[in-house]
Write a structure and sequence with these properties.
about 90 residues, about 90% helix, 1 helix, single chain, rod-shaped
Amino acid sequence: MHGEITPAGLISQDSFFENQRDSVKMIRKQLEQHEKAVIENAKRLERARLKEQEVERLKKEAESQNRRREQILHLVVTIPFIFLIYKPF
């Protein structure tokens, strides 16, 4: 008879579904590992972005301090020169 279920057929189907469950477990585990790797990579990228921002901020701060230092040096040189030129009598 066609479509008949035999004990051997039941065992075969049972092992087929067991293999499917194992495959699903394996795929789920791989997916979880991939998700963790993606999250870690995103965290690393964010830390790198924040460090780059900090570097840019520090560069701007250093440039500002250099300009201020140059202005002060200019004043230190200019002020005594002004007193030499405009000596009060």
